[in-house]
Amino acid sequence: MRPILELLRLDTEQHRSVRQIAASLGLARSTVADYLRRFRDSGLPWPLPAEVDEAVLEARLFPSGPARQAARPLPDWATVHAEHTLPGVTRQLLWLEYKADHPADGYQYTQFCAHYARWRATIDPVLRQEYRAGERVFIDYAGQTMPVVDPETGEIRQAQIFVGALGASHFLYVEATWTQSLPDWIAAHVRMYEDFGGVPGLSPARDKPGYQQDPIM
Fold first, then answer.
1. Does this model's pTM top 0.90?
2. Going by C-beta distance under 8 Å and a sequence separation of 6 or more, which residues neighbour residue 54?
3. Can you point out the beta strands (E) in 142-196?
4. pLDDT (tens digit, 0 to 9) for every residue of the chain, 217 residues total?
């Protein structure tokens, strides 16, 4: 019998995350997410009515049928989408975790991305912005730093990653600086514009009224 009752208790009463529930019960995260999704779709309340015992709950959440048995497993896309926003969590990493849970019948990376793209198309749309060539550059420091090892001393320092992108072409400029201080910030801009071979028409300037930096990472 699946540990559905304990799983639901951890979710609804103790408000544990999918990762915490999976670790506590020794289940795959995709399995936990699937059980929670089935429970939500069943329309059953929590706490469960007296007449709904573990066997009835199992039958409600896992109805028998050849079509359902033949379906290939999919992850909980809401969970995938939320984890994709975390630093360092790439789509490739999410697919590898999904494939580890379903090595035999899981989708390959291309189909995984295709299903994810179709799911994303069902959520709230975003406003598409268009930029003219040479009009704007978007700049920011990336969220993660990069370790740099001194070959003589072995000392490790964390470098800040400065990134600039032209709005129309998405042409990127990337460099590492030791800090995010104003001198490094200005010097990085100078080198970026030298690399671009010019200055965009709507370049950001911190000392101008209404300046708003557009983060790109």
1. no
2. 1, 4, 5
3. 146-149, 156-166, 172-177
4. 578 888 999 999 988 899 999 988 888 888 899 899 999 888 888 888 888 888 888 888 887 644 444 467 888 998 898 888 888 889 999 999 999 988 888 888 988 988 888 888 777 666 667 777 878 888 899 878 999 998 989 899 999 999 999 888 888 999 999 999 999 999 999 999 999 988 888 755 444 444 444 444 3
